[in-house]
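We now fix the convention by which a protein and its fold are recorded. The integers have meaning only within a learned vocabulary of local backbone shapes. A record is reproduced here so that you can trace the correspondence yourselves:
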Amino acid sequence: MIHFVRFNVVGVLGFALQSGALFVLTHSAYPVGYLVATAAAVELAVLNNFVWHQHWTWKDRPSATTAETLRRLLKFNITNGAVSITGNLVFMSILVGRAGLPIAGANVASVAACSICNFFLADRIAFYAEGSKHRTQ
């Protein structure tokens, strides 16, 4: 259970970072389109979240080597990154592009829709440790 709680605390921080980046990218002097801005903001949050998950959420499953950390980052980006970027782009294109909702509200809905799936992917794939109690704590 502690992993799930910590995952969500990190997720809230990552969401704040993603939202801030999305706002800056779409409201600057040279604004970026909302889909490109969404992809960039999500990737920034994914990288930020990886660092926090590695050092805090799953600190009981430490990497033994730099190579293992890099493998985890790759697995995290492939799983959580792909779900987050694909999910957010699909939801944003539907909610903003078709339904005409504001970017900020659509961003909240998109992140919420992807978060549960991301927890299980992180726990079971990216931060899985051989010999650990393969269950959510």
Summary: The longest helix spans residues 66-98.
